[in-house]
Write a structure and sequence with these properties.
globular; about 325 residues; binds N-(1H-benzimidazol-1-yl)-2-phenylacetamide; 26 strands; six-stranded mixed barrel; five-stranded mixed beta sheet; mainly beta
Length: about 325
């Protein structure tokens, strides 16, 4: 079997939201290859926290099974967090159903989730080694459905300021051009992680970097969070740019011409993003906030939506590989 769903961007393509049915209830969730918990705003949240969100009410699902005593708590790199209880229910995405998917009910969420009223929770599409359910980590939707998919893959075809597509179980050849360039994935940290040992700024042949951190493909991150020395070199080529503490990153005049930025996807391919696609947001006063920002020395580079929205991306759970193609 295979299925596809729309991925609709929030403002600035900060995240992409997709329709999911759980126990017959429709919610709008953020598919996140950078984590492995499927959690939803629940009817048990304080009303002040769930106001504006659609909540999942287990008492209204005839197929809900509580997982007595199980709990979860997650915190993300940006400081946001959520926690709660666990059960199992039928989860359907694009016509593809897992009948007993672990569904994590939020009884607590941090402020950024409360404010993001279009987002009713997340579908983690990383590896279940980082699932936070106790006493027993639970499998992701993709891990559960993989054996019944025509191909053990899902693809992300995200677009700039336009709706894209997630597809499970098929590689839709109408969604890309040319070859798909794959790299093996090391899933030992729970991410779709691969080496990224060269980069290019403003074109030309790639600069090798033996000290470059490995990278992860992360649909749940808005920006590209890159090793500090590379980011410094990039903005050195943007006239009028500066590191603005209050904004939390590099800004520049929106009239600036940004150089292209290319990053290695494994050993054989450089994914190059044109400068025109490297602004994340206009700040309203003629300055712009860059899509390329520092990873603050975290030892991992996070290739988020600023990269992914320019490519067709394949997450291959069968061969444990990640691939990109132009489109
Ligand atoms: O947290 C991050 C990005 C990040 C920021 C700073 C340091 C390290 C990583 N992404 N992310 C991935 N999945 C998420 C889900 C919610 C919020 C943020 C999420």
């Amino acid at each position: 079997e295979s299925g596809k769903v729309t991925a609709s961007p929030e403002k600035n393509d900060s995240e992409y939201l997709s329709p999911v049915t759980i126990g017959g209830q429709a919610l709008t969730l953020d598919f996140d290859t950078g984590s492995a918990d499927l959690w939803v705003f629940s009817s048990s949240l304080p009303a002040a926290d769930s106001s504006g969100h659609t909540t999942f009410d287990p008492s209204k699902s005839s197929t809900w099974q509580a997982y007595q005593g199980a709990t979860w708590q997650i915190s993300y790199g940006d400081g946001s967090a959520a926690d709660g209880t666990v059960g199992f229910d039928a989860v359907t995405i694009g016509g593809v159903t897992v009948s007993k998917q672990a569904v994590e009910l939020a009884t607590g969420v941090s402020g950024s989730f409360v404010q993001d009223t279009q987002n009713d929770g997340l579908v983690g599409l990383g590896f279940s080694t980082i699932n936070t359910v106790q006493p027993q980590p639970q499998k992701t939707f993709f891990e559960n459905v993989m054996p019944s998919l025509a191909l053990p893959v899902f693809t992300a075809n995200l677009d700039k300021d336009a709706s894209g597509t997630y597809t499970f179980g098929a590689i839709d050849s109408t969604q890309y051009t040319g070859d798909i360039h794959y790299t093996p994935v090391d899933s030992s940290n729970g991410f779709w992680e691969f080496p990224s040992s060269s980069y290019t700024i403003a074109g030309g042949s790639p600069t090798p970097c033996t000290t470059c951190s490995p990278a992860i493909a992360d649909t749940g991150t808005s920006l590209m969070l890159i090793d500090d020395d590379i980011v410094t070199a990039y903005y050195a080529q943007v006239s009028g740019s500066s590191l603005d503490q209050s904004q939390g990153g590099y800004i520049y005049p929106c009239s600036a011409t940004l150089p292209s930025f290319g990053v290695a996807i494994g050993a054989d391919y450089t994914a190059t993003i044109p400068g025109s696609a490297l602004t994340f947001a206009e700040l309203g006063d003629g300055t712009c906030f860059g899509g390329v920002q520092s990873n603050q020395g975290q030892g991992i580079q996070i290739y988020g939506d600023v990269l992914l929205r320019n490519f067709f991306a394949v997450f291959d759970g069968g061969a444990k590989r990640f691939g990109v193609a132009t489109k």
